[in-house]
Design goal:
Elements: E1 5-8, H1 23-34, E2 38-41, H2 47-51, H3 57-60, E3 66-69, E4 74-77, E5 82-86, H4 93-100, E6 105-108, E7 113-115, H5 118-128, E8 135-137, E9 148-152, H6 155-161, E10 168-170, E11 177-182, H7 187-199, E12 207-211, H8 217-222, E13 225-228, H9 234-239, E14 242-243, H10 248-255
Parallel strand pairs: 1-2, 1-12, 7-8, 12-13, 13-14
Antiparallel strand pairs: 3-4, 4-5, 6-7, 6-9, 9-11, 10-11
Helix pairs in contact: 1-10
């Protein structure tokens, strides 16, 4: 086995539609552990949204204590519930968006989600499949910390509102909203920092990553080997070393590392780490 680490996305990859890890997948994770791999989580969820899943201890115990959350911007210790490092958007970003007059803004602080309006809260809950009851509606948005700011409006207006504010990135408009995140927000960049700081790994060459979404594209193409789920986002499938035809559970329990034996990239550094 040439890999020492396996990094997993959660939604659409490790978790089923019910937000749970099924028993066969759990057996597959145990198999990886028996083969000597350290298991890592790399997800777009914040600590608050991950805790909403209520993952059982038998699942969490299989993973390393430090999890990579909010697309690489947070290192969170699930055992102690401590955020050990966190990258946020500039403190001036939220006041600038409010001053521009956007009526529908949602801020994820890592420990909670706050919305300026009930309609924005409803839309956010549907888009991100989180309980509507978990979103606080308030006329006073927290300016800091802000891990991600979701603005329901035109991207050109968001860009205009944030003119002159460095340190944030504005994503493309999707489903009527665009996200403002810290500059360089990326699972690959976050994982590279974690591997170097905690595991003394100079590259991601010994990591095999599993994912399915557009926020996994860079990661699947930068690690030693990337495995895309059968129903992955097209970009993720193109970036991966291997695209599954069946389920993740089946591959982990009976197939891994089939298809990866001759694939082991040096572990490229993505543009966000330079």
């Amino acid at each position: 086995m040439t890999f020492g680490y396996a990094a997993f996305d959660l939604d659409g990859t490790l978790l089923g539609a019910d937000g749970c890890v099924d028993p066969v997948t759990l057996d597959g994770l145990r198999r990886l552990r028996e083969q000597g791999l350290s298991l890592l989580v790399a997800t777009g969820r914040s600590p608050y949204r991950l805790q909403q899943l209520g993952l059982p201890t038998e699942v969490l115990d299989l993973f390393e204590p430090l999890m990579l959350l909010r697309d690489g911007d947070i290192q969170w210790n699930w055992r102690t519930d401590a955020i050990e490092s966190m990258r946020t958007v500039p403190d001036t970003a939220v006041p600038a968006l409010l001053a521009w007059g956007f009526p529908d803004i949602v801020v994820d602080t890592g420990r909670g989600i706050v919305s300026t309006s009930a309609s924005a809260a409803d839309r956010y809950a549907r888009l991100y499949r989180c309980p509507r009851s978990s979103i606080v509606v308030s006329g006073r948005l927290p300016h800091a910390p802000a891990l991600k700011v979701t603005v329901f409006g035109e991207r050109r207006d968001v860009l205009a509102a944030l003119t002159g504010i460095d340190g944030c990135s504005i994503g493309p408009r999707k489903s009527g909203r665009c996200n403002v995140v810290p500059l360089g927000s990326c699972k690959t960049a976050g994982l590279a920092r974690l591997m170097a700081e905690r595991y003394a790994e100079p590259t991601l060459g010994r990591v095999v990553a599993f994912g399915d979404g557009d926020n996994d594209v860079c990661l699947l193409g930068s690690v030693g080997a990337g495995v895309a789920m059968a129903d992955s986002y097209p970009g993720a499938a193109r970036a991966a070393s291997l695209r599954l035809r069946g389920t993740l559970a089946g591959y982990l329990t009976a197939g891994f590392p089939r298809g990866l034996e001759k694939i082991r990239r040096a572990g490229r550094r993505c543009r966000h780490t330079t």
